Amino acid sequence: MAALMALSAQAAHNMSPLQGQYYKLFAPLTFYHEVAAEQLSIASEDPDEVGRAIDQALMHVYLNRPDLVEVTQTEQQESGELRQDIIEQPVVQQVSMVEQAEPMPEAPQAEPTEVVVEKPKFWTRKGDGYLQFMQNYVSGNWYKGGESNYSAVASLTLEANYDNKSKWKWDNKLEMKLGFQTSRTDEVHKFKANEDLFRYTGKVGLQAANKWYYTLQGLAYTQFSRGFKSNDIRTYSDFLSPLNISIGLGMDYKVEWLNKKLTGTINISPFAVNYRYVDRTQFRQKNDITVTDFDWFPGRYGIDAGKHHLLDFGSQVTAALEWKINDVITWKTRFYGFTSYHRTELEWENTFALRVSKYISANLFLFPRFDDSNKWDDDLGYWQFKEYSSLGFSYNF
């Protein structure tokens, strides 16, 4: 085989166009009958030394590497006659020359394309509001006062949330509600606030896992105006009386359940601080009668009589969820729980919204509350309950 390769290399170097006898070296390896007959002949009549060397090289391959033979001369002849003119007459390529070549076609030039790079939008903003009329029920020991009656309420909720789609998020939510009522049985007050809330919730989170975040949460809420009861000259609550501030450190879970129809967050804070402040200790009413709220109700809001502050350390759980039951009904719920292991405060707000049209909706609001820092009630104990249904204008943005 080495001899055949050497001979092929030499032939390729020395072969001239007039020498077609080397084709056996470059064609697919074929078993030629005359090669075997020549080698088995006693007296060789071939005077061509080159042809004899080619036949010897081919015979060497036939004997040592028969697996390299691709076809026999018989099979080759059956497929068609050999072109003897390749051996006898050289093939000369007819080349026609032209005076000038055709010019190469010019490639179309690409037109400049304007590339616009938009800055990622990390902030999302939304809100909703409504102005509705309602039928209202308030338990007799409701901590902010109030009375069951017909009234009206306005609400505005604003959210601005930051999420860099990597690790950090910052959620901000501001809730404002204010409603007034009139009562024929109340001879002391012409108007009373039956729904009064000013609340801010903020959370800063660092992603720990897929939907879990290490979170520092802050919660602060108070009210806009005074809180009264019917035919009662005492003031039960006021702006900054009380002011509740809670700060909790823990974990926040992002809820995306029921094909993302139920969304929101659940926060668990094993380490929480609750600060309660009452600005006013004396409340002046009609006829220059000065009363001290804490003298009449010692321990109200958990604060000792004559003091302004209450600081507790404990644990806290909050949840804010929204379930779009269908295109018409939506359930929004908020749960808040704090315990300092010597007092417990629980709040569970539920709003069922029935969308009548794009701008008309009906609401059902249910609000059970537990606070053992308040005065014991003979009927409900430390439980309080608030409910109203309303119908009016609503708008989302």
Number of DSSP strand runs: 16
Mean pLDDT: 82
Largest beta-sheet details = 12 strands, antiparallel, barrel
Low-pLDDT runs of 5+ residues are 2-9, 283-298
Q: Helicity level, as a percent range?
A: 10-25%
Calculate Rg over CA atoms. Answer: 48 Å
| Multimer state | single chain
**Could you state the order of secondary-structure elements as H and E?**
HHEHHEHHEEEEEEEEEHEEEEE
Distance between the termini: 87 Å
- Coarse morphology: rod-shaped
Q: What is the overall number of helices? A: 7
Decide which structural class fits the backbone: mainly beta
Structure description:
The protein is built from 7 helices and 16 strands. It is mainly β and 397 residues long. The strands form 3 sheets. Strands 3-4-5-6-7-8-9-12-13-14-15-16 form a 12-stranded antiparallel beta barrel. Helix 3 packs across helix 4. The longest helix is centred in the first third of the chain and has 16 residues. The protein is rod-shaped. The N terminus is likely disordered.
Question: Which helices and strands appear, and what pairs or packs with what?
Answer:
Blueprint lengths: L1 H13 L8 H4 L3 E2 L1 H8 L8 H16 L6 E2 H7 L5 H4 L34 E16 L10 E15 L4 E14 L10 E16 L4 E11 L20 E15 L4 E16 L4 E3 L5 E3 H4 L12 E16 L4 E11 L4 E12 L4 E12 L11 E14 L1
Parallel strand pairs: 1-2
Antiparallel strand pairs: 3-4, 3-16, 4-5, 5-6, 6-7, 7-8, 8-9, 9-12, 10-11, 12-13, 13-14, 14-15, 15-16
In short:
The protein is built from 7 helices and 16 strands. It is mostly beta strands and 397 residues long.
